[in-house]
Amino acid sequence: xxxxxxxxxxxxxxxxxxxxxxxxxxxxxxxxxxxxxxxxxxxxxxxxxxxxxxxxxxxxxxxxxxxxxxxxxxxxxxxxxxxxxxxxxxxxxxxxxxxxxxxxxxxxxxxxxxxxxxxxxxxxxxxxxxxxxxxxxxxxxxxxxxxxxxxxxxxxxxxxxxxxxxxxxxxxxxxxxxxxxxxxxxxxxxxxxxxxxxxxxxxxxxxxxxxxx
Length: 213
Description:
- By secondary structure, the chain is an alpha+beta fold.
- It contains 10 helices and 4 strands, in the order E-H-E-H-E-E-H-H-H-H-H-H-H-H.
- It has helices spanning 10-22, 41-46, 66-76, 87-101, 105-108, 110-118, 124-148, 163-177, 186-196, 199-203; strands spanning 2-5, 27-30, 54-56, 62-64.
- Helix 1 packs parallel to helix 3.
- The longest helix has 25 residues, at 124-148.
């Protein structure tokens, strides 16, 4: 098995956490997004989107999109489970994960931010303001939901990490990168603290990756 990732990619960060929680240690290959390695012909032949992560399984299948990879891991390596046993719980966890992966993260993605500055010509300060705004809008809604719902526990759902936590921690790292004040999100910060106390989360952190700069 081989994982193509980049230390600063939050999507790749999610997959690293999930792999660690499952106890799966693939071979690693760095795809340096800021140097354009994702646009190399060899990489595009494998992943036409030119995004990370990509996971090549032992069977030779190429898996793309972080949540699809995590769902494959959940099905292929059932323990420990990253989804609740009940259908309503699974729907809740998936909704929280998708609120981050689909509604917050894409607006802070490197290729979007590069388009804002390189094509539309906005300033770096305006670009960072854009990223902060959309992080703020999304995290505020997740904070409200987690703070008021009884299903929230030590983690986003109950007492063990789920796919929601796997998505939350990298997104908070992104928010700090654009200097968003996280004080208004005490529930998110409490859950993050519980997550990063676990070796699987700590070992997946960007600064601990071989390609970290």
